[in-house]
Every structure is written in C-alpha cells, then in structure tokens.
C-alpha cells in the first residue's frame, strides 16, 4: 500500500476530492454525494476520489480512516453496478485500491475520463437531470442543452454528414464553389472529381448526400458550411459566427486593427473565411529560401504549416450547434484559436499525435483535397515542431466547460525572455543562474504565466511526470516556488508574487497580457459578431455587438474578474483588498468568524467572484464556498449576482445592505 503523500505526489495533475465516508454511526459507508462527483469527473478529465479523508480550513488533507475497508469496497462495487444509482461503471478492479497514512486505512478510487461514446455519465435514470461536470469550484449540474450535445456526440460519430431538409444548390455561393474547384485544380490538377458537374462534385467531396433508406437527398451540413450563403447557413445553424481579429498588444486601448467576421460584406462560409484569414495570419512571417528535390521553391516555413493546421483544426473540430463563436486572434506576441465544443480525445493523446476523432470529417476531407490539411492526428505535433524550432514558449491547449470550448494559444515570445531573467536575477541572485535548464524554465514560467503545473512543465520539457514532481519538490524546498492546491488544482507560484511585480514585465514577456480575454473573452454569441447579414448591427463598427463593449463583454464592470467590480484589482484598489484579507491569508487556521467577517468586508462595495475571494484569502475556492459562502448566503448576509442561475460561470457575491443603503 502506498503512503498518502506519495499517492498525491504521483497524481498532482489529477482532479482530486476527499470524502470522510464515516456514515451515521461512524463505522464508515459509501456517501451518496460520491455519485455526483463520479459523474462530474467522468464527464470532465477523470480524477481521484479518496474515501476516509477530508480537507481542513486551509486545504490540508487529514486522514480520518475507515474501520472496514472491505465492507465499503463491496458496497461501492454494488452501487456502481446498480443502474438506478449511476448509468455506467467505468472502473476496473485496479482502479480501486487501499492506501495507508499514519496508521489510517483509506480507499482510493481512480475515475477515468469517459470516452465520447460513454458520455454522459449520469446519476439516477434521467441524463437530463443527473449529469454533472467539474470545475475548480466543485461539481455543477449540466443544463439540458449541454446534455443533449453530449448525447448527440455519442451517437453521431460524424456531426457534419447530416442531410439538411429543404436546402439545395441555390443556398450555395457560386463564387465560393468555383474558387474551391480552382484551388483543388491547382493542388491536384489530374483529380477525377474535377471533371464532374457541381452536383456530382459535391456528392463526391461530401457536400451532397442521399439517405438510402428514405431516398431523401440534399445538401449536407458540411456542404452548406463550406460553400453556403450566410443567410442560408444561419437558417440551419442559428448561432454560427466566425471571427478573426488582429489586435495590438494589451497595453493599447485599440480593440483591433483588422477584422474579418460575419458582417454581411462577404459570403460568410468556412472556405472563404479560410481564404481571407490564412494570408493575414502569415503575412508577417519570414520565409527561408529552400528548394524541393524538383528545384521548385518552397514559399513557406514550418510556422506557416503550423498556423494552417491550427486554423483548419479550429474549423473542422467546431461544434456548430453551440453558441460560442469561432474566434481567431493575431497579436504581436501570440496567435490564438477558439472553437465551440470540447476535445474528443484527452489532451495527452492529442499531444502525442497519431490519433484523431474529428467532429466534422467531411469538412476535414474538403480541406485535405485542397492541401490545407494533412493526415489525421498530425496537426498538433507539427505545431509543436514549429514552435520548438523558433524557441518560442510552448503552445497551451485548454478545454473549458462553462461554456464548452477548446482554446489553443500559440505564444511567439521567447522561452527565456531577457526581461524575465533580469527580474529573477534581482529576486533570487546568483543561485537562480545555478539552476538546471528544466528548473530554470519552471521558475521563468511561474513568473510569466503566474503559475506552472506538472502538465505544463511536462509538455514543455518532455520530462516524466514523476521527475517533474521531484523537480518541483526541490524548487519548493529551495525557496524558488511555493506549492498551491491539492491534486488537480496543484500549481506552483513564485513565493509572495504580486500583480504589481508581474506587470513590471514588458508586454513581450507576457503570454496573455494583463487579461486572459485574448481568446476566451466571449462566453456566447452575444459577445461577438451577430447572426444576421441583413441588419446594421453586424458591422464590426457597432459598439453594442463587440465582445469588448458593454453590456456583454468580460471587459465590462459587471462581468469580469479583471475589471471592476469583480476583480481583486478593482476599486477601491488592490492594495486595499489585500490589506483587508491579510489577517486571514497570513494564517492557515483562521477562526470561522474572522473568515466570514473578512468576506463581508471584501464584498461590501461590489460583487466579488469566488476565485477572486479565494485568491485574496489564500483558500481553495471549493472549501471557501462550502464552509463560508453558503452559510453567509443562508444567513442573508451575502447575495448572489445571478440569483436565478446559481451555477452561472460569472457568479459573484456581494454583502447585503439594509435600509436605504441596500443596492438594487
């Protein structure tokens, strides 16, 4: 049996939850709450549930132990195989193990990430009411729309093959189709499809199809998305938006310097979006002189190839039934790509390459026929190769769930920027230069990105997870880093790093700039370009429809953690908030009354998010919510910013005021 500490060290990049599992009589039982956690982990990234332990106020893990692990283990297996309790058992015998800590025996449950066809994993008998997912604040129940997308993903292996009833060739943009055929002719001049008329051509590339059981024939979703007119696309996919923005560095007040979006001035389909955006993405790249074996000059670098792969992947992996717009951003210090829909494969599998589970395979085929995409599973390794050759900071691939989206950030700043090295030299002196290459990279990443995780350093250095854990342990012991969190939430930060210290770096050293809004700014289509080409509001010049304008942007006061009033850096000012929080932050065992009084003081002037409060108080968000926030709300001392939607991703809390002082 492995010691508890060793287990947590091995799995510090996994989601983690501890449950005392003591039962009413104190002899131990499988808690009911385990099944929502099981569902949430399975539908997210998997994780570990530890029975016989709990977290204290400061987030430390305490072993309560189990008196009869054999009895609880049997009860667990009985329950997980009971379809009235949970719909699917994803675990094998090896996933349930017994561990020991200071004489206490515990059960460790390894919950795997459910595959696409296994989701949703849900409690009870109704997926629409029993499906959960997980975020940093705990488990949340999925809304009906999210569950229906999971069910569709499980059933429909190819999402863009659907035949659209009532749509025909007149819904296509003739110039787009003609341009595509010309592009294919220049790429594959002898391809037999080129001899076909438009209808037969579309049928062969996947844009037109026939249901052999019903004899129904028509445009596929892929054909309409690739070549359609915007009005027709919106009839089939009401939330469809594609958006490309060139932005200055974060310090600039300009929103964008160039933009291509569905504003009614062009066809709006995916092929024309690709044709317009790819040249803009690569316009400033240097092209080294090299020849192929046939002495033909090659006019692109590996970076060109990587950006083309990233752009095409964003389009062919998008879930067009979701509300999130496709967004592509070019900035001096990064390229960013966001598509609606989560990853169909785990991140580690995607990083390795060689496997693919494309959501829209007909679109993928169409881009392959014009040389814009290559074999399945090769995209991300090519991106990594290009970025390694340039010695740029490694790409970040994130899957987000509220709302569901995939974000790829490609920073174009150095792995070891001179400004960052200078900053760390000042902080640590000569001992920083004595660190090994991987150790130095870990500390620099913690400075630039505000934190570094096991997975991040593992991807950047191709170092085994156990070796990365050992490196972090050494850096913490030497005072270079401070550990924060347990399990999946574990990260490492510079000791005592403040926002002011980070902002002293130039924009060139910053991966995201002062805000994370570079890519994930809009949480739904309201935040980006609108959905109709007929109305003036589609213009990029219209303030009310920009993701950077009130009232729907994360840049606005009511919705952003990075701007007043929801930020720890907002009015009255960050130093004032830090001063209020200091008595709690400085001790791991602050009295509950002190913590709650401090929360009320922090929320006295405006709504604060749970993450902001957790950062200020030095506590885990889930612990803060369960132990204090819920009690303050129940007592009528705190109020929700969004009382009608408790699990709102932008939820905030404000101190309730009485009499004439109460705010509406």
Sequence-ordered SSE layout with sheet pairings:
Layout: H1 4-10, E1 16-19, H2 34-42, E2 47-51, E3 53-55, E4 61-63, H3 69-80, E5 96-101, E6 104-111, H4 127-130, E7 132-135, E8 138-141, H5 144-155, H6 174-187, H7 198-205, E9 208-210, E10 217-219, H8 221-227, H9 230-236, E11 242-246, E12 258-261, H10 270-282, H11 302-316, E13 326-331, E14 334-340, H12 347-352, H13 361-369, H14 379-390, E15 396-401, E16 404-411, H15 418-428, H16 430-433, H17 437-448, H18 454-461, H19 465-477, E17 482-484, E18 491-493, H20 499-503, H21 517-520, H22 574-585, H23 592-602, E19 608-609, H24 610-617, H25 621-634, E20 638-640, E21 652-655
Span between N and C termini? 57 Å
The averaged pLDDT comes out at 81
What helical percentage do the residues reach? 25-40%
| Basic shape | globular
| Helical run tally | 25
Number of strands: 21
Strand content: 5-15%
Radius of gyration: 26 Å
SSE-based structural type: alpha+beta
How do the strands line up in the largest sheet?
A: 12-11-13-14-16-15
The description of the largest β-sheet is:
6 strands, mixed
Unreliable segments (pLDDT under 50, ≥5 consecutive)? 293-297, 499-572, 659-664
Task: Please tag this protein with its features.
single chain, 664 residues, alpha+beta, six-stranded mixed β-sheet, four-stranded mixed β-sheet, 21 strands, 14% strand, globular
